[in-house]
């Protein structure tokens, strides 16, 4: 078993994820969150994503490239997920959306816990639901929502030097954000931030 695979001990991960409020968030300061809420008109929409850690010999994390036809976050790298329906828990939302978007059987992921919620600039309050996913499994992406499902090596995710901190002016302010290296896709924004937090959890830096 690789050293990377040893990071995926379910008992240890459940313990680290047991209290999402105790996990340091990567980013937004309270001021950033207030500004994001103001940009959305104060209308915050609960949502959840599934963060599947794939238990291969060399483990990976499952990501998607969103369809360019979508009304929000089009063409961006994300986790399977979407807005929460009435009466749903974040776990139910994440599993349902993963089934709808990439055809993942909801019975397959072993849910371990949650990362801290993240407020996006479009007014979504997103709860990442971390799970273990054991091969074999079959995916069938919905082309209306997902252009491609792909896997990102956990060995790269565990490298604290891998993500690059970048700056760009937006709405008159200089913004900082993370970008993760990939040969084909630009992994940034909320997804990159979630990956930074996940990396800390996996490395036991909670």
TrEMBL record:
Domain Nudix hydrolase: start-end pairs: 44-174
Biased composition (Basic and acidic residues): 17-38
Cofactor (UniProt): Mn(2+); Mg(2+)
Keywords, comma-separated and alphabetical: Hydrolase, Magnesium, Manganese, Metal-binding
InterPro entries with a match to the protein in the record: CoAse, Nudix_hydrolase, NUDIX_hydrolase-like_dom_sf, NUDIX_hydrolase_CS, NUDIX_hydrolase_dom
Record-linked SUPFAM superfamilies: Nudix
Pfam families, per database record: NUDIX
Region described as Disordered: spans on this chain: 17-39
Highest taxon above the source species: Bacteria
TM spans (from-to): none
NCBIfam families to which the protein is assigned, alphabetical: PRK10707.1
Similarity annotation: Belongs to the Nudix hydrolase family.
Protein name per Swiss-Prot or TrEMBL: CoA pyrophosphatase
Species annotation: Roseomonas alba
